Amino acid sequence: MSFLKGTCLVIAVFLTVGVGLLAFVGCGADCNEPCGPGVPKGALRVSSEPPGASIALDGTPTGKTTDATLTGVREGTHVVRVNLSGYDAAPETLLVDVVAGDTADAAFTLTLSGTGAIAVFSEPAGAAIFLDGAPTERATPDTLEEVPKGEHVVRVALDGYCSLPESLLVTVAEDSIAVASFMLSEIIPRVVFIEHFSNTSCPPCPEVDGNVELAVTQLGHALVVSIGNHVNWPAPNDPFYLANPIQFQERMRQFNVAIVPHVRIDGNRFDDAADYGALLAAIGSAAVAEPFFRIDVNGEIVADSFVISGSIGKVAATAEGDEVFLAVIIETDIYYEAANGSTHFDDVVRRFLPGTTGAPLSLGVGESSDYRFAAALSGVWNAENLEAVVFVESRSTRKVYQAGSTRTLGKP
């Protein structure tokens, strides 16, 4: 009889009259030497509280974790150990007698092998705390107690904010308090600003105006807002132009508008708005630009006026440094049968506040300023469909850094 390491191989030689016959009998990986068809075997049930500990039998890892039953264990006495990181096992080892055809038990109690604590802070407070990827159901500032000694990953999360750093590797020592501190930065979404010029008798204007309206609707007002100016040519009787001729003329001169339709994305001329795919691509490119400003916008009717108020904060330095901001009252969802075939107008400018040149904005990075403007309601406006748009632009280049709108608050 011969025994080979790894897999037991029994070679039995059977001799018959005049003929030699070799028979090979093998046994599997669970085999405990000595093995063979006549070796009695039983089972061993290993458990722990809490479960999840790795199991070793006679000094060899089994690849199983508690609670588990080991089968095909040879009869006799065996040494059982379990291990779970951060815990001590009681007892450390067990000598278990396995009886053929029966199941023996090996039960362990696991206790934390020394613990400490982690004090977690964030600015601002109120962020959810995660330990080793799992939620703790705690929020900053708080202290996590009975944390097993050793290294742990801590992170925090607060809606609308990003965390610096994203996570921290903290070493916990027994009976001590480690500290994890995070700075939370507000996530400022970039809002793309489209300003377009049109006329109710301009033949190519319906396609471009329709593309702009469709893009704003499909992408959402939290990503892009638009305002529509009207000119007095090719026909001077455009009712939208006639409702605000002075301001429309001023805005036309600022951009040297000589042909309609005329579209600008964040202040830059864009001549391919008739191509809807190109328009979406241009908006997408603008949406990844740095926001520079945080704009909060409110719009409401107070007595016989429409009031736009809110605050503007500067979050990054601009190259030009000559910012102004403009508040705009727009009217949406207007139905009018125009000479060029258009019947629906969605973002018609009713008034620029305080005017088309805007108000100076002198802010340092991290500073903010409140604003409030009001305009008397006009008899030609539908007060229920009025919205507010606010944007910051360069006085010299007309580049638009950021925009905001009451439509981003979930209004249709």
List keywords for this structure.
single chain, 412 residues, mainly beta, Immunoglobulin-like, 4 domains, five-stranded antiparallel sheet, four-stranded mixed sheet, 4 helices, elongated, disordered N terminus
Task: Sum this structure up briefly.
The chain has helices at residues 205-219, 239-242, 245-255, 276-287; strands at residues 9-16, 19-26, 41-49, 54-57, 60-65, 68-74, 76-83, 87-90, 94-98, 103-112, 115-123, 128-131, 134-139, 142-148, 150-157, 161-164, 168-172, 177-186, 192-198, 224-230, 262-265, 268-270, 293-302, 305-314, 323-331, 334-335, 344-345, 348-353, 359-360, 368-376, 386-394, 400-405.
Give your account of this protein's structure:
The protein is mainly beta and 412 residues long. The protein folds into four domains: 1-39, no CATH class; 44-113, Immunoglobulin-like; 115-186, Immunoglobulin-like; 192-409, Immunoglobulins (Immunoglobulin-like, Sandwich), CATH 2.60.40.10. 10% of the residues lie in helices and 50% in strands. It is built from four helices and 32 strands. The protein has helices at residues 205-219, 239-242, 245-255, 276-287, and strands spanning 9-16, 19-26, 41-49, 54-57, 60-65, 68-74, 76-83, 87-90, 94-98, 103-112, 115-123, 128-131, 134-139, 142-148, 150-157, 161-164, 168-172, 177-186, 192-198, 224-230, 262-265, 268-270, 293-302, 305-314, 323-331, 334-335, 344-345, 348-353, 359-360, 368-376, 386-394, 400-405. The strands form nine sheets. Strands 25, 28, 29, 31 and 32 form a five-stranded antiparallel sheet that branches. It has a four-stranded mixed sheet with strand order 6-3-10-8, with no helix packed on it. The longest helix has 15 residues, at 205-219. The protein is elongated, with a radius of gyration of 38 Å. The termini are far apart. The model is unreliable at 1-35 (pLDDT under 50).
